[in-house]
Amino acid sequence: MKELVIEILKKTLEEKKINLKSEQIEKLIEIPPSSEMGDFAFPCFSLVPILKDTPQQIAIEVRADIGEPPEGFQDIQTSGPYINFFIDRTAFAKKVVLEILLQKNNFGKLDFGKGKTTMIEFSQPNTHKAFHVGHIRGTSLGESLARIFEFNGEEVIRANYSGDTGMHIAKWIWCYQKYHSKTKLKKDESWIASIYVDAVKRLAKNKNLQKEVDEINLKLGTHEDKKLNILWKKTRQMSIDSWAKIYSELNTHFDVHYFESEMEKEGINMVDNLLKNKIAKISEGAVIIDLKKYKIGVWVLLRKDKTVLYPTKDLALAIKKFQKYKLDKSIYVVGSEQDLYFKQLFKTLQIMKFPHADKFQHVSFGMVRLPTGKMSSRTGDNILYSDFVKELKDYAKKQIKKREAKISKINLEKRSLILAIAAIKYSMLKQSSNRNIIFDKKEALNFEGDSGPYILYSYARACSILKKSKIKTRLTNELQILKPEPKEVELIKKLSQFQNVMANSYLNTNPSVIANYSYQLAQLFNEFYHACPVIGSKNEIFRISLVETFKQILKNATSLLGIEVVEKM
Predict the structure, then answer these.
(1) Mean pLDDT, the chain, as a whole number?
(2) Which of 118, 220, 239, 245 could join 329 in a cystine, given CB atoms 3.0 to 4.6 angstroms apart?
C-alpha cells in the first residue's frame, strides 16, 4: 500500500513538473499517530521552495490533482500541510489475511541473498573453561543471524571456532596433575570449569608457579610428551562432548567446527612468509606487525619463546575458510572487547593483499552482566550455563503449575525448558547487539512484561481460541469481513509489516528488529482479544482467520530468533 501511495504522488507531482524520485518520496511519507488521521501522510513542506506557496495550499492543490481515490483507497484528505491517505480497510484486511494464510511459513521471504553463501562464525567456547551466560548471547545472536540470512535466500555455513590450545589449557592440565590427579575425570561442565578456576586462584597466590605452567605450555606446543598429549586429547573431548546438550537446548547446530590446534602449523608457515615479505618483523624476540600508522597499534603473532598466539591462528583460519568454501562473506560474531583485534586482523589481510579481504565482517556484541556485576571465567565470578538454565526452569515450573496443576513431569520439563530458553534468548536479542546488557531473571521471566514468556503466552492464547472455535474453514476467497474495528485494523497493519521488518533485520544484521516487532505484535493481539470478542461474534469467521494469521506470523518471527513456541502455557 505504501508503494501505491508513492506511485500516486510521483505521478501527480510529475504532472506539476516536479520530478521527485520514489526513494525521496518514501523518506517523506509518515505514519499518522492515529488511524483516524489516515494510514499514510505526505507533508508538503518540502514543496514550498518549488511551488512558492504555503504548505497548506500546496496540499489542497496536490489533493485536487490526484482526483478520485484509486482502487485500494477509501479516501484521500488534507489536514493542514498534510495529504492523508485512507486505505480501503476491508479490502486490505482480506488481502493481508489471505496472503499470510496462503504463504504460511514463506510469508515475508525475500530473495535479497539468493545465490550468496555466507559463513557465520559464532559461539566459540574454549575447551577446559566454563560455558557461561556470556556465551549464550553470542550463540543466540549467531544462530538468529543464520536463520535470518537463510530466510532471505542465502546459503549459510554455521562455523564454530574453539580454543583447545594455549595458556588456559596449560593452566588446567597443570592444576589437574598437581592437585586433582586422584579425582576421576568427569564429562561435566561445572567440574571442568572448577579446575580452571582453581588454577587461576592458586597462580594468583603464588606467581612463581607460573614457571611450571609455562613448561607445560611449551610441551603441549611440541606434542612430544605422549602422556601429556593423551591427557590433553581426553579432556579436550570431554569439553566438546559437554557442549552437545547445550547446543541442542539452544536450538542451534554447526556445519563445521574449527579448533586452534588445527591452525598452528599453517599459522607458523604464514608467519615465515610475512617475515620474508617484510609485512611482519622481529621486535625484542617476538614477531609483530606494526599497524601504528593505521592507528590500530601493534599485533603480536609469536611470543619470544615462539609459542603461537591468536592472531597467527586467525590469519590461517581466515584463508582456510575461503580455500574450502566459495564464500561471499565471512561474519565473525564476537564480543565488543575484540573490536580492535578484528580491525587488526582485517587490515593485515588487506596488507597481505588477500583477494577476499573485503569480504570479512565483525558483528560485535556487548557484555552480559548480572545485577551483581561482571562475570569472569578466570575468577569463577560467573554463572555456568547449566546452573543458569536450571534456575530459570525451576522458576518457570512454578508459573506453569499455577496454570496447570496436573501437568505430567515430562511435559513440565519440556515446557519449562522452552520458557527458560525463550526468556534468555529474547532478553539478549531484543536490544541492539553492541549494547552491554544486565540480565535480570525476574524481568526476563515476567509473563506480563516485555519478555519471551509473554510472547509465548500470546501464542498459546491464540492456540486456545482456535481450539475452542467450531469454525475450521478459514482460507477462502469468499472470506466475509464486516467493517474492521480499530483494534483489528491496528493488528492487521502490524501483521502486514512483517516483510519490511525482515528486510530491515537482514540488511542491518540486527535481530533486535524482529524481537521488538514480536513483542509489539503480541501486545496488539492481546488488545484486539480484549476489545473484539472472537467466538460467537457476528464477525467470527474473519476474526478466527485473523487469530490464525497472528499465530502464523508470530511463529515465523520467533523461529527467526531461535525461539520455540508452545501451544499451552
Answers:
(1) 92
(2) 118
How many angstroms from the chain centroid is the CA of residue 472?
35
Residue by residue, DSSP assigns 238-258 as HHHHHHHHHHHHTT---SEEE
pLDDT tens-digit readout, 97-151: 999 999 999 999 989 999 999 999 999 999 998 888 889 999 999 999 999 999 9
pLDDT at residue 474, rounded to an integer = 53
Question: Which runs of consecutive H residues, i.e. helices, occur in 252-327?
Answer: 264-276, 310-324
Query: In this structure, what C-alpha cell is assigned to residue 534?
Result: 472472537
Q: The domain 122-369: what is its CATH number?
A: 3.40.50.620
Cβ neighbours, 10 Å, residue 90 = 15
Alpha carbon distances (Å) from 284 to 110, 300, 305:
54, 11, 11
With residues binned 3-state (H G I as helix, E B as strand, rest as coil), the percentages for the chain, rounded to 5, are: 55, 15, 30
pLDDT of 248 higher than 50: yes
Residue type, 338: Q
Q: Is the pLDDT of residue 374 over 80?
A: no
pTM of the model as a whole: 0.90
Q: What is the DSSP letter of 127?
A: T
Interval 222-234 mean pLDDT: 92
Give the residue extent of every domain in the chain: 2-87, 122-369, 386-560
Under the banding of pLDDT at 50, 70 and 90, the label for residue 201 is: very high
**DSSP 8-class letter at 154:** -
Contact status, residue 423 vs residue 472, Cβ threshold 8 Å = no
Rounded Cα–Cα distance for residues 228 and 127 (Å):
16
DSSP bridge pairs for 370:
373
For residues 228 and 342, what is the distance between their CA atoms, to the nearest angstrom?
33
Cell of residue 322, nine digits: 575461503
Single-letter amino acid code for the residue at 133: V
CATH of domain 2-87: 3.30.1360.70
Q: What pLDDT is recorded for position 377?
A: 45
For the chain, what percent of residues have pLDDT higher than 90? 78
* pLDDT score at 446: 87
Question: Within 10 A of 488 (CB to CB), how many other CB atoms are there?
Answer: 22
Q: Mutual orientation of helices 210-222 and 167-179 as an angle, nearest 10°? A: 110
Amino acid at 212: E
pLDDT recorded at residue 471: 78
Amino acid at 279: I
Give the integer Cα–Cα distance in Å for 489 and 527: 12
Is the Cβ–Cβ distance between 67 and 8 less than 8 Å?
no
Q: Grid coordinates 534468555 are at which residue? A: 424
| CA nearest neighbour of 384 among 253, 259, 242 | 242
The CATH superfamily of 386-560 is Isoleucyl-tRNA Synthetase; Domain 1 (1.10.730.10)
Which of helix, strand or coil describes residue 159? strand
